[in-house]
Write a structure and sequence with these properties.
Blueprint: E1 2-7, H1 15-24, E2 27-32, H2 37-50, E3 56-61, H3 69-75, H4 77-88, E4 94-103, H5 114-134, E5 138-143, H6 146-159, E6 165-167, H7 174-182, E7 185-189, H8 199-207, E8 213-215, H9 237-247, H10 252-267
Helix pairs in contact: 3-4, 4-5, 5-6, 7-8, 9-10
């Protein structure tokens, strides 16, 4: 059986069909991700309403540096964090804080300004503290900000002894994966690891300890090879498992077992 450790189920209009296909593909658990106050509430609703004996669904709650910016600007950071803490304690289905982190663009109309970077750092820092405070793993998003994200995590890691989590949809190299593992974090590989132009990520997968590897779809985004161009969904987590099995010279059964064990351990899935 397989665990899709990161999906955005609220974005599927045909959710029941998507979940049926996931079960047919051998997916037994899905963690659906919140990226704002509203999507965090929706993730919990989905986890509570669509869990079955064959397919258990869990939720995270968090504020993505882009998706939740409007809420923070409207309500203020302090109130948003209070509400996020309340949401995190509202259901036993909540197993993580995030998706949160840093998301930087360096060129064109989307170039991230210095003030936006400072906003993102404050928002991420508050969620790091919240995760440690409520005893849940942190789901980390990183785009073009490896040095800063490790700096923030390292500073807080020294203060917060129970800080743990996962770098989702990992896009770094070997050194980034090592830093993540050294901080006690897991590394999760999405469809990107199957791309032909992702040798650094594939090398990182080779060097990441087996007890720290997770797999995810990040669906409906990041469709893996050979299905690129179509909508991604949780059933495709098997493709990531098959790719890593071949890449790491392991059986698919071994990959299924270790990634399931790792996800269960990190998120404390029932």
């Amino acid at each position: 059986m397989l665990v899709d450790s990161h999906a955005h189920l609220e974005l599927f209009e045909d959710l029941e069909e998507v979940l049926a296909r996931a079960k047919e593909a051998g997916v037994s658990k899905i963690v659906t991700i919140g990226t704002s106050l509203e999507t965090s509430k929706r993730a919990i609703q989905i986890a509570e309403n669509f869990t079955t004996t064959e397919l258990e669904i869990y939720a995270t709650c968090g504020i993505h540096p882009n998706d939740g910016a409007e809420e923070v600007n409207n309500l203020g950071l302090i109130d948003v964090m209070k509400k996020l803490k309340e949401i995190s304690k509202s259901s036993k289905k909540v197993v993580g804080i995030g998706e949160c982190g840093l998301d930087y663009f360096f060129e064109g109309s989307r170039k991230t300004s210095d003030s936006e970077k400072e906003f993102q750092r404050k928002l991420f820092g508050e969620q790091i503290k919240l995760a440690a405070n409520v005893g849940l793993p942190l789901v980390v998003h990183c785009r073009n900000a490896w040095e800063e994200i490790f700096e923030l995590l390292t500073i807080n890691h020294k203060k917060l002894t129970n800080l743990r989590g996962v770098f989702h949809s990992f896009t770094g190299g070997v050194n980034d994966a090592k830093k993540a593992v050294d901080l006690g974090f897991h590394v999760s590989f999405s469809g990107i690891v199957t791309f032909k132009n992702a040798p650094d990520i594939q090398e990182a997968a080779l060097k990441t300890p087996l007890d720290r590897i997770l797999i995810e779809t990040d669906s409906p985004f990041l469709t893996p090879e050979p299905l690129r161009g179509s909508q991604n969904e949780p059933k495709n987590v098997r493709i990531m498992g098959q790719f890593l099995a071949k890449h790491l010279n392991l059986s698919i059964g071994k990959i299924e077992a270790l990634t399931t064990t790792n996800a269960n351990s990190l998120f404390k899935l029932g």
